[in-house]
Amino acid sequence: VLCGETTGLDNMPAAIKALQWGQTYSPVQRRGKAEPLWMPQNWQQQFEKLVEQSVSKIIPGLPDQDMERGLGGHLRCLQDCVPQHLCQLAPFLRPAQLLGCVTLSFQVQILQQLEQVLHRSPSVSEGFLLLHWALHDYSSESFMGHPDIRDQSVTDKLLLVQWTHRVEEKLLEAIEIELPTSLARILQNEQETEDSRPSDEEEEFLKLQVDLTQVINSFLTEAEKVSRSLKPKVQRICSRQLLCFTERYQESVVEYINSKQREDCRSRRVRLFRIFGNCHYLKEYLETITEGKEDIKILKASLEKTEAQAKELILEEPLRKAKSLLKTYIKKGDGHLDDLMPRLMEEYESLPVRGQLAHQIVLDSAYERLCFLYLRVLLKSDRRRLHQRWGDVEGRVEQDAASLHASFSRMNPGGRQWNSVLLKGSGVLKLDDVEALKISCTVLIYETPEVSEELIKRLLQWGARLSSQQVQSVLETCQEVMVQVSGYPDPPRPSRWFCCCPWAR
């Protein structure tokens, strides 16, 4: 048995008994002559060879094909058969202090076998699987840490640590290869979708955001399952690749925005809205993934610029149309704004992904612009004629403010109440006392910093019959109060009160 003429763990008990007897044998020493292999003194060496041969036959072989699918099954098979054999032999091995020898042989051969997987350049999923198995399953009670076979004095921990480190290196290499490929595929799909007729279906509209989040978060989630110390390493790779992805996407959309590509207004608006949503998403997602905030500072500023450009182009036509409608409405002075609301809102009604953050931001901006646009058109009209047609001008403005808010709050519940500009503006128009105007105008500017000094001046001139000196006095008071509130030593610059609505000028 010990000479290896037969191998297999079935013969192991007999070999153990023979070895135990040989350990008590004391032969007469023969000077100058080596003991033959069959002598009891050499049985330990023979036993170790027997163990090595037997273990190699017991351990199941690696799957030849479809390694990615078969690796998990192979590891489960190891966890089933290895403890089973060791538990059968433990009662014989432990008294002879041979359990460690057999356990170590299993450990060495299992890791040598799995080393072949590393030589094949494992995929990311295989790398995560192997690393999780090495860190969580290998020493568990269901495998080599089983209570009946545990023998800490002979387990080669360094061997497992070194192998685990190699698995981690291979995993990170695989992520460096697979992640750029996956991101390139996402970018290609997005570009192909944009080049064709863009869809406003929510699933298709958010595809880039969903796919990107799923790919990167899957790596981070799996890394965290394996080890907390692994996640930062994976996150650094994801951060670098996300930066590269964002730069490429940014280049492609800037080229489109600056181009004069011919397409119908509907398709262009949907595509611009999609670009706006993606840029906003990427800007926010970079913040969560990237640790070095300085690395994204320039790219984030570029995304913000593109996002702003896309939003301006989305709103350009609807606001141009709204300006024409409001001019006609205020000039004629008949009818009600409610009658115009369907035509004012139709462009916003058709925007996709209602309720999503991008939709909320665009609607909020449109609401703001429309309120300022209304006020500017109003202040360019003839107050006396308008009073003849409307009677209570301030009351009509308040009614129209309520109509605007009802329409926008229906589409964007919880959004900012921008009609307060019209309501407070109407309050200013009702006053003719200089001191009361100072308070009212200061409150308006404080609560709505977007109001420009030039707009306040027009309100004062259009409403109360004030001299130029009284108007200037009100404006100076507003500036002084704003300096005290903001804490700046100098008066607010005009840009602070600038209303960025080019269609309203």
What do these coordinates show?
72% of the residues lie in helices and 0% in strands. The chain is mainly alpha-helical and 505 residues long. α16 packs antiparallel against α17. The longest helix is centred in the middle third of the chain and has 40 residues. It is elongated. The N terminus and C terminus are likely disordered.
Uncertain runs are 1-7, 488-505
How would you name the oligomeric state of the polypeptide chains in this document? Answer: single chain
| Gross geometry | elongated
Strand percentage: under 5%
Average pLDDT for all residues: 84
| Distance between the first and last residues' Cα | 102 Å
The total of beta strands comes to: 0
- Outline the biggest β-sheet: none
- Residues in helices, as a percent range: over 70%
Q: Given the structure, what is the number of helices?
A: 19
Rg value: 39 Å
Task: Output the keywords.
505 residues; disordered N terminus; 0% strand; mainly alpha
Topology:
Elements: H1 12-23, H2 43-58, H3 67-93, H4 99-119, H5 124-137, H6 157-195, H7 202-205, H8 207-226, H9 230-258, H10 265-289, H11 293-332, H12 337-349, H13 357-379, H14 383-390, H15 393-411, H16 420-429, H17 434-447, H18 453-462, H19 468-486
Helix pairs in contact: 1-2, 2-4, 3-4, 3-5, 4-6, 5-6, 5-8, 6-8, 6-9, 8-9, 9-10, 9-11, 10-11, 11-12, 11-13, 12-15, 13-15, 15-16, 16-17, 17-19, 18-19
